[in-house]
Amino acid sequence: MAAADPSEAAVLPDYVLALKDRLTYLPADQVERVVRAYRIGAVAHAGQARKSGEPYITHPIAVAGILAELGLDAETIIAAILHDTLEDTQLSRTELAGEFGETVAELVDGVTKLDKMRFSNRQEADAESFRKMLLAMARDIRVILIKLADRLHNMRTLGAKDGSSRRRIARETLEIYAPIAQRLGMNKFKAELQDLGFRGLYPDRYRVISERIRAALGNRREAMGKIEAALTQRLASEHVVARVVGRIKSPWSIYSKMRNEHKTFAQLMDVYGFRVVVDNAMQCYMALGAVHTLYKPVDRRFKDFIAIPKANGYQSLHTVLLGPFGAPIEVQIRTAEMDSVAERGVAAHWAYKTDSGPANSAQARAREWLSSLVDSQANTASSSEFIENVKIDLFPDEVYLFTPRGDILSMPRNATALDFAYAVHTDVGHHAVAARVDKKLVPLRTRLESGQLVEIITAPSAVPNPAWLESVVTGKARTAIRQFLKHLQHEDAVDFGHRMLDRALDALGSSLDGIAPTVLDRFLTEAKLHRLEELLADIALGNRMPDVVAAQLVAARGKRARALIPATSTEKIRITGAERGVLSFANCCHPLPGDDIVGYLSSGKGIVVHREECPNVAELRKQPERKVSIEWDRDVQGDYRAELRIEVINRPGVLATVASAIADADSNIENVEYVERDAAAATLLFTMEVKSRRHLAEVIRRVRRTGVVSGAHRYPL
Question: Which of 72, 342, 367, 591 could form a disulfide with 76 if both were Cys (CB 3.0 to 4.6 A apart)?
Fold first, then answer.
């Protein structure tokens, strides 16, 4: 440790001298730059204090100290000291860049929240700030290292906050920051953030579990010592140089497993954990053989994360042994290098890393993840949706899958074949129709398991449909499907809106082509719309009434639009039923192709289609401006929901007989329920899919022929 200069000690406070002592790995001129950053930061934050009453500058210095323990470079340490200056002081970005260079300014800007912008609520502001930070992190991963260190020190000093702030910050830490630390392989950070978050969110639960862990450890110290000695002795006899250390579960990991795996505290604590650290990868496997000869391994509890690393770069051998005290022993075997990466992840060996030099496995994996984040945000308009996708990807309890070429893809647990298709490529996902898993044909919704060989079958004509969103779990797949559907919906809305506006203009003796471009442009500007397509989509989605827009356009053209009273066109708009996102079919009457129908505009939903005889239409007629005259096109495809009310003789097998008749008529049953039931008779309500009114009539005929039915009719009548 370098001795502090006495004259300097009189000027620099103890906490800055302590930081200097941690920076002995940096050249002297770089340490001086760090001290210069402190002086500028102290002046900028002068007069500011933390909730605890300490001078505010103590916080950024503490953050810098956490990063110094990781051996990070001078620019990161300087940016950590100044990380709140752009947000909370008069110091400008230009001054920052002039004093310490553009890189430091970029890092500080990346960590800075978007407080200067106006948002409708705190959630929106937090989401947009978080998106900004993640994109800055994609450019330079040191942004998130500063943010994690900042959050860690805030969590260590959380006691000064009021109760509601404590809970909000603790929840955010558990939901976002601890998982990010895990995703970056920084297990030491992750573990402390989780425990501090647990203590802040559930203080009583934390206290009870912590006390029980302490008591349990006291009772089993002797057993732990015996197992550790036996492991050390066996490894030495096999000439494997190793360090054996006992592992203790944290309060958060105990609590999480109790909640998620429905296990008792006793079940979770009845496990002995050890870590074996050796010199090289070959010795990992030699150590594995040695411990397997000492205690019997538990079947199917061995995992090789050296050959197949986790998504965050983590490498280790995991095995579970049957111990001498009747309790399982969990053993992790890894090299010292792997141990450093497991603890520090992307921050491991930072001092020796250059941009041109080889990155450790965690750094390489992090870059892959960050590039996928950039792709995701480019296709996601809403910050909240982007954060939702990131959260999904932050909990990758992985399964490992093989492509036909032998490549390995890691996917979150419960991922489906459709997720796998999108992980291969967005185009593969868009055109997927089925999958082969271990050479067996399976549907796209099939959940995958580790070790499976997955091949995706595609067809050029295949496209995503809304039901796919219920099958996928990865953010990439969800974003790609939503983007595709939004594009389709927009196209359909523009086309449908065009037809509706043309019809309304025709009733006024005009047409869209007859409106001068200057008149149309002026109208769009006044309506705060950028393009005609936006106006047409707005009309189709029910946000603007076509008759009103038509009257305004004709009036703006300088002609009287029949006293601006919208006339009614006799021409009906034909629908195929495939107009995605523009049409929806009313649940009160379940209209089918072949029915006489009418449409009513509903804001944000578009046109809701009813049968003409629907009881609710009488009420809707009170708002004639919302009515849209529609009819079925000759070429209608797809399945439509219908309900069938069937009275049956109540005897064994009757349900199966009726269901079989419905299936024989090529109708898919969605749901069935008993409406009424007694000893002699029962009334069943079947919800099914049919292609048209004629198809439903065929279903009813087949049902009536079964001999067990006393009545069958469409519901509602």
Answer: 72
